[in-house]
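User: Sequence in, structure out. Go.
Assistant: Echoing your sequence, followed by the structure tokens.
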Amino acid sequence: MGRELIRWVVAAGAAGLLPLALAGYIAAGLPGAFGVLAGGAIALGNLWLLGRSSDRALALLAGRHVHPLWVVSLGLRYLALFGVLAALLWSGRVHPVGLIVGLSILPPVLIASALRGSRGVA
């Protein structure tokens, strides 16, 4: 993934989280707002880590030297992701629906990014 694309998606996603967090606060109080913000941070952080991993995979395919444990980091990313999600839900400080709304920020932002990119192609 291109660094510019990831940068744009993270910035647009972070900007989109603010009104959603306000709606979460109105609907479910602080746990709703925290859930939206935590879910969004997890989704956008996961995308950023995925972009770094794909850079390493492309470097390996191009024949450049890559640390042999980079594949392990892919699995550790999922382990950390599920651990953080479980800890957030177990703590009771985030509303589960708010967390899902925050995690769902990524697909619309990626669609907007694709539409933004297709305007230049047409």
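User: And one key feature?
Assistant: The mean pLDDT is 88.
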